Amino acid sequence: PIVSSMEVTQIGTTARGLPVYVDKNAAGADGIILLNRVKPHTSFRGKYESGLMKMMAIGLGKQYGAQVCHYAGCHRLNEMIPAFGNVILDNSPVMFGIGILENAYDETAEIHALTPNEIRAQEPVLLEKAKAMMGDTGSNVLGISIGMLMVFGYSFNVRLCWLVFLILIHLLTEKYSLTKIIENNKILNYIDKLGR
Fold this sequence. Notes:
By secondary structure, the protein is an alpha+beta fold. The protein is built from nine helices and five strands; from the N terminus they run E-E-H-E-H-H-H-E-E-H-H-H-H-H. The chain is elongated and about 70 Å long.
């Protein structure tokens, strides 16, 4: 049978003294199996974003646990989610988690089963892989706009230079993450955040 309720029980506290809650039925169960997509969050960046740690911190904590986790605002979720998730891993019967990675078309690309310790260690690795698999639809709009301008607005020599430039960028991104390059450059990172 499906047992659902908003009742929670406190199972511990974070290092900062914040109470950590888990669904009362889950806390009393023989085991908890987590299931979530591992992907970038739309409101913050961190080692853990949307994934199994967030499912524990926000999902298992129900409304009350989510409220406590969000008390400092979205800009602090990159600290709060692992703090709450680690307390839950240490003090509740989590057996394993299933992390799902999707491609740029929202199709399931990979499924990973992780033990509690693997969740801590491997979810950040899966998040980086998920970021690389997603692509950037915002850049598609910009790309087609620049492409149309190049085709209809410039001479053959200018178009040829742009083509060579784009091929070089493509070769660069085959070896290095463009996301990492942008994140590590203050100017590019600022420009990238303007579109979010």
